[in-house]
Amino acid sequence: MKKERGLLIVLSGPSGVGKGTVCGALRQQDTDILYSVSATTRSPREGEIDGVNYFFKTRDDFEEMIKNDKLLEWAEYVGNYYGTPVDYVEKTLSEGKDIILEIEVQGALKVRQQFPEGVFIFLMPPSLAELRSRIVNRGTESEDLINNRMTVAKDEIEMMDKYDYVVENDVVDLAVERIKAIVVAEHCRKDRLIEKYKQLVEVE
Length: 204
Prior knowledge:
CATH topology of the domain at 8-36 and 97-203: Rossmann fold
């Protein structure tokens, strides 16, 4: 019987909403979902590890990846490039394994064009005031950059209708449970399973 293709799960939302925190908690709870590591030209934050949190690249290296079609998607966001290496994603899906991409909104919309069968989840902050507070508490951005991120965030929230699901990140563990429920439901969708079960009937 043909192996069921894995799910491409795309989690995105405004900067500071907690995408990395939620993905980290999800990985600890559910080892069946693999994590796609993005490439970026931004500098590592404290505690971030190359090849685990991101592949940290120079601008020249990143632009070479763009030129050679080595990225599923890429975008320039607040002065830095972000992108998803394509080979690992396709290999994982073809092996029947689920993979989650934690990416910016611009990148998610590009992935949707190439993988319309993906599961697209928008991670929403409880409020804009809470979002600003989370960005400020990072202690890594200047006031101008924080204001820039908030302006971008408002524009991104307006693109929520491009997604399949919205998950509020009020409490991390609750957000993780909602995402896991979405993944289970998606695996049970008729259009993902109908060919598999038709084959069973034909064998009988």
